[in-house]
Amino acid sequence: MSILIKNARLRETKDSVDILIDETGKIIDIRHGLNVSAEETIDAQQNLVTPTFVDPHLHLDKAFTALDGRISTFETLEESLQLMHDIKRKYTVEDVKSRAVKAIEASVRYGCTKIRANADVDSICGLTALKGVLEAKKECKDIADIQVVAFPQEGIFVDEGTEELLYKSMDLGADLIGGMPALEWSDDDGKKHVDIVFEIAKRYNVDIDFHLDQIKDPFSRYLEYTAIKTIREGYQGRVTAGHCVSLAWQTDAHAQKVISLVKKANINICVNPAILAIMGIDPEPRTRGITRVRDLVKAGVNVTTSQDTICDQFHLYGTGDPLDYGLLLAYAAQYNSNETAEIVYDMITFNAARAMRLDEYGIKVGNRANLNIIEAPNVREALRLRPSRLYVIRNGKIIARTIQKSEILSC
Q1: Which residues are CB-contacts of 382 (< 8 A; sequence separation ≥ 6)?
Q2: What is the β-pairing status of strands 3-8 and 145-151?
Q3: Quick one: pLDDT at residue 71?
Q4: What's the pLDDT at 80?
Q5: Mean pLDDT throughout 58-82?
Q6: Residues 363-381: b if buried by 16+ CB within 10 A, e if exposed
Q7: CATH code at 53-355
Q8: Domain boundaries in the chain?
Q9: Full-model pTM
C-alpha cells in the first residue's frame, strides 16, 4: 500500500514536507507540496516525523519478572543478581518468550522497532533464556528487528560450563556474543574472559556487546583492555560497551587516555541511566551511575542510551519508551539546552542505529520507510512531554497508531 504523509516536520528542515512511500515500503519522494495520490494519506499536522527509535541494550529474558508477586526490595546490583538466580531456575522457553514478546510489543507501541536483546547463557538457566528470546524474535518479525546477544551474565570462569554454552548459543542462532568480565574472581580471569569473547566473535564473524566496568570502581580497567584488544584484533566498529561507570571514577588523566583508546577502537558506548536505581545506598555525594557522557561525546565517540531493563529485579520501572530513558539520560548527564536535546535524540536514533550497524536508516529517498509521527513540534518538546506516537510505520506499513486523544471534560 502506498502512503503519502502530508505536512511532516523533519528535524533538519525548517518548513514542513510531504513524504511519499511506495508499495514496496520505500521512500520515493520528500518535498514540500507533493501533488500526488496514494492509497492512504496521513496529515502529520506539522508534528515531528523522525526515524523509528532504536534500543541497543535490552534484557528481554528478564522483562516483567517483577510482576510475578516477588517484588524486589534489594537496592544493589549484587543483591539483584542473587535474586534473579532463583527466578532463572524456573525459566521455561514459553515463559521467556511470552514476557519477551510483551516487552517487544510495548516498545513498538512507543515507536521502537529495532532492538538489541541480551539473553542470559549460564549454568543456572542453560540455553532456556536464549531459546525463549529467539522464539520471541521469530514471533515478532513483522513488527520489529531483533538482534540477540548470547550474554554470560554469571561470568565464564566462575560459572563452569558457560564457555561451551556460548558456542552452542552461536550454533542456535544468536546474532552477537556478549561478555561481563567484572564477574570473574581475578583481573587476570577477567581479561581472559574478554579474550574468549573475541575468540567466539571471530570464529562466527559476529559483533560483540559487552557489559563493562559497571560499578563505581576507579581501578576497573576492562574498558581500557577491551579497547586495546579491539584495535589489535582489527575489530574496530564492531564492539559496543555498556555502562562503563568506572570511567567516571577514574582520574581525569587516565580517563582521557581511555577515551582516546575507545575513539581509536571505534567502540560504541551505551549509557544505561536506569542503573541509577541500583547503584547502592551511597553516602553523600551519591553516584549518578553513568559514565563520562560529555567527555565521550566531545571526543567524538558514538554514544547511545537504552532502556536496559523493564520491570525486573534490577529495575522495577521502565516502559520501553525511548523518550523516557532519553529524558532520564538528559537529566543524569545534565544536558539542558536545545543543542544537547538534539544530542540526546541522536542517541536513541542515529547513534543507536550506528551501534547496531543498521542499513538504510533514516528518512531519505531510497531508504525503507521506518518512521514515527510524534505529537510534538520538535525534539525538545518530544523529550519533555513524551507524547503520543500518532503513527508508527515499519517498512512502509502502519504497525501502530494512537486513535484517541485525552481531553479535559467540563464540569
Answers
A1: 48, 323, 345, 374, 376
A2: unpaired
A3: 55
A4: 72
A5: 76
A6: beeebbbbbbbbbbebbbb
A7: 3.20.20.140
A8: 3-46+361-401, 53-355
A9: 0.95
